[in-house]
Structure formats: C-alpha cells, structure tokens
Amino acid sequence: MPNLVAVLSDEIRRLSRKEVRIACEPLQSQVRDLKKVMRKQRDTIARLEQQISQLKAVSAKPADKIIAADNIGTTRQIRLSPSSIKKHRKRLKISQSELSRLLNVSTNTVVRWEAGTSIPRDTYRPGLAQLRTMGIKEVKTLLR
C-alpha cells in the first residue's frame, strides 16, 4: 500500500502547479504581445535611423540642392560660355571656391570653366543654369 504522505504531497504539488499555470497564463500572453511590439519598434527605429543617415548624406552635398533632376534631359540646350559663368558668379557675389562647393566640383574645375580651357559636363550644366535664376540670399543659405 502506498504511503499516504507521499500520495498527498504529489497531489498537492500537481494542483499547485496547475494553479500557478492558470495564474501565469495571462501574464505570459502579455509578455508575448509586448515582445512583438518591441520588435516592431526596433525595426521602426532602425528604418528611421537609416533615413536620417541618408538625409544627412544628402544635405552634406550642396550640389544635390542645386542640380534639379528634371533638368537633366535638357542639358544639351543650355548654352554656357566662360564669361557667363563668371558673370553669374560675380553677380551672386561668391568666390570660385564657393561655386565649386555648390556644384560639388573642385575649385580648379571652376577656374578652367571660366578660363575656357574646359567645358562643364552635362551633369553640372543644370546647376549652372539654375544659378541664373537664384538670388544672393538663396546662394548664401545653400552655402551654410
């Protein structure tokens, strides 16, 4: 015959585990739901940080602010002479190095454009054409 004490302690242990399981079940589902929310938030934060880094990279390049993407197809129609580049630079009261920062080229490139020893590539023509329509204040804000 089994020991009465052993049988009772086993039954008490079984019933207490069952009660603990019943009491903890809602908490476990809440923990699962919170973990899902945390995963979604981590993904959102990672995506937003990536967007911030992309925006910082874009804002670090002033040429992206000037060169309009819709003008790229019309680059052949823009006529630029060395004197017109120099005239618009002087009108905007900027130096050759500031113009080079705006267009994301070297200062020597701007010097060669104004001297007539080289011509601007098609990718820089829209930016130079956009300089014609800009004012001094606009250019100064872009250079900051």
Question: Which key terms come to mind for this protein?
Answer:
144 residues, mainly alpha, 434 Repressor (Amino-terminal Domain), 2 domains, rod-shaped, 7 helices
Describe what you observe in this structure.
- By secondary structure, this protein is mainly alpha-helical.
- It is 72% helix and 0% strand.
- The chain has helices at 4-60, 62-66, 82-91, 96-103, 107-115, 125-131, 136-143.
- Helix 4 (96-103) packs across helix 5.
- Residues 63-75 have low confidence and may be disordered.
CATH architecture of the largest domain: Orthogonal Bundle
Order of helices and strands: HHHHHHH
Strand content: under 5%
- Span between N and C termini? 93 Å
The portion of residues assigned to helices is over 70%
The CATH H-level homologous superfamily of the largest domain: lambda repressor-like DNA-binding domains
Low-confidence stretches: 63-75
- CATH uppermost class of the largest domain: Mainly Alpha
Shape: rod-shaped
What is the gyration radius calculated from CA atoms?
A: 34 Å
Number of strands: 0
Number of domains: 2
CATH fold description of the largest domain: 434 Repressor (Amino-terminal Domain)
Which structural class is indicated by helix and strand composition?
A: mainly alpha
Number of helices: 7
Average residue pLDDT: 84
Largest sheet: none
